[in-house]
Amino acid sequence: MSEQTLMAGKVVVVTGAGGGIGRDIALALAKSGARVVVNDIGASVSGEGNDAGPAQKVVDEIKALGGEAVANTDSVSDSRSGARIVTSALDSFGRIDGVVNNAGILRDRFFHKMSDDEFDAVIKVHLYGSYYVSRAAATHFKEQNSGVFVHMTSTSGLIGNFGQANYSAAKLGLAALSKSIALDMQKFNVRSNCIAPFAWSRMIGSIPTETDAEKARVERIKQMTPAKIAPLAVALCSDASQDTNGQIFAVRNNEIFLISQPRPVRSVHRSEGWTPESVLSHALPAMKANYFGLDRSGDVFTWDPV
């Protein structure tokens, strides 16, 4: 199957596609034959502002390559505007076959300093935004008995990171949302998967770099261009990956990872039941050897990408 025909006839919405990872996914989808709704409100990394330019610029790039695309500047963080993103696909191209939930903002702050607004704003865009757009598309996917979701999660949520309780909570919640969509909609031939991308972007650029080790890690991340994420995203959107559903992947330069999902590690049993004292004297000591450390993403991915 050639690159131009892999997504032929398909219509895909990509949120947050005015730059970075979203832009490269939108371009790659178009090169593979898809018609693309390029959604971006043109805001700053923290979510302020509104500029129609970035989305239209990507549309112009796609058209210059001979593809078809339309710009949309609705926000994902509101139910009605999220639904308008899906309507834009239907109005422009008559159908919708895929949604790539990529839109996001950052408001990094250590937890003991985080405000309600900083927590709420990030949850609204990443988790609620993915829900709103996915829910609007789900009705059409059910009716046509086909459709695919690709959600951008993060190792900040899957593993952990400093100063990102809002972002981490949203991204781990998004992995659960994706799994639930996969379970609920598999009978309608609808698939839902996640990608945790490692790529240099405006959002990564806002990560605090207070130590030499953190600065060195950011320099390594700069080598990982957003274009590295696009091939997996396109593959997951295609009909050729119909047997891939409810999975979590990560992409780190030229590496693709399948990420584990929570399962029981060890159990202890006491026939007479438990008391707080026996939990402390038996259960916790028995399981302590299998405790997970307070790792951050950078503690797990410690080797340089190639």
From TrEMBL:
<dbReference type="InterPro" id="IPR002347">
    <property type="entry name" value="SDR_fam"/>
</dbReference>
<dbReference type="InterPro" id="IPR057326">
    <property type="entry name" value="KR_dom"/>
</dbReference>
<dbReference type="InterPro" id="IPR036291">
    <property type="entry name" value="NAD(P)-bd_dom_sf"/>
</dbReference>
<protein>
    <submittedName>
        <fullName>NAD(P)-dependent dehydrogenase (Short-subunit alcohol dehydrogenase family)</fullName>
    </submittedName>
</protein>
<dbReference type="InterPro" id="IPR051687">
    <property type="entry name" value="Peroxisomal_Beta-Oxidation"/>
</dbReference>
<comment type="similarity">
    <text>Belongs to the short-chain dehydrogenases/reductases (SDR) family.</text>
</comment>
<feature type="domain" description="Ketoreductase">
    <location>
        <begin position="10"/>
        <end position="206"/>
    </location>
</feature>
<dbReference type="InterPro" id="IPR020904">
    <property type="entry name" value="Sc_DH/Rdtase_CS"/>
</dbReference>
<dbReference type="Pfam" id="PF00106">
    <property type="entry name" value="adh_short"/>
</dbReference>
